[in-house]
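User: Once you have settled down, look closely at the record that follows, taking as long as you need, and be ready to discuss the fold:
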Amino acid sequence: MAYQAGGQRPAPRPVPDSPEAQAYLQDCATLMAALSLPSLVVDHRWDVVLANAAYQSLFRAVAPHPTAMPGDNFLRFVLFHPDAGAVLGDHETSWCLPMLAQFRSALERHAHDPVLQAVRRDIAQDPIMEAAFRQGLPHWMRAVGEEGLRQDGAVRPLLHPDPRRGATECRLIDETTPMLREMGCTRLTLVLREPRRTAPPPRGRRRARSAAHLTVVPTLGP
């Protein structure tokens, strides 16, 4: 059984089923439910094991999709959902390429995992995605190095559905505990930044423009 923070629902995911592990996940869900920031726990396949209400709200406008919903598998959502770019800013460079790097790393460690193999087949069936995986990804990895595999601390653009936030950024914070790591899980929290606002012009420039304007006003004679 997998849990949504604040409740629980059955899901066909290979999460640990021991009573101790399930109790720990329940407490993780309680902790995450108290957060106002989007937070999720995924396994090595990027299947979503836990997700809080703020995470669900971030993707509330996403249309239904048979295989790529953000509450089911975050990897598939980033790569295959047509609405992903409406939430994940600079979608191809800031989200797709890093996720493809994560996917390739997971596939190297779990070569025979059927879920990861299914993702690989879906990539192969999309010519653009296949080109990105075979050609774009190696070029990108040469440019960014091992930093491409590091999630913790990465700052990525977001298009938040809340108009008070709008176009903003988030920093990914890896909050994986030792027990979650033993379960093969990773916890990520998206720390939202304040919306970017255009700074007003310096006062000196405004005064200069006003002075320039005054010089062209003709002097009235008697």
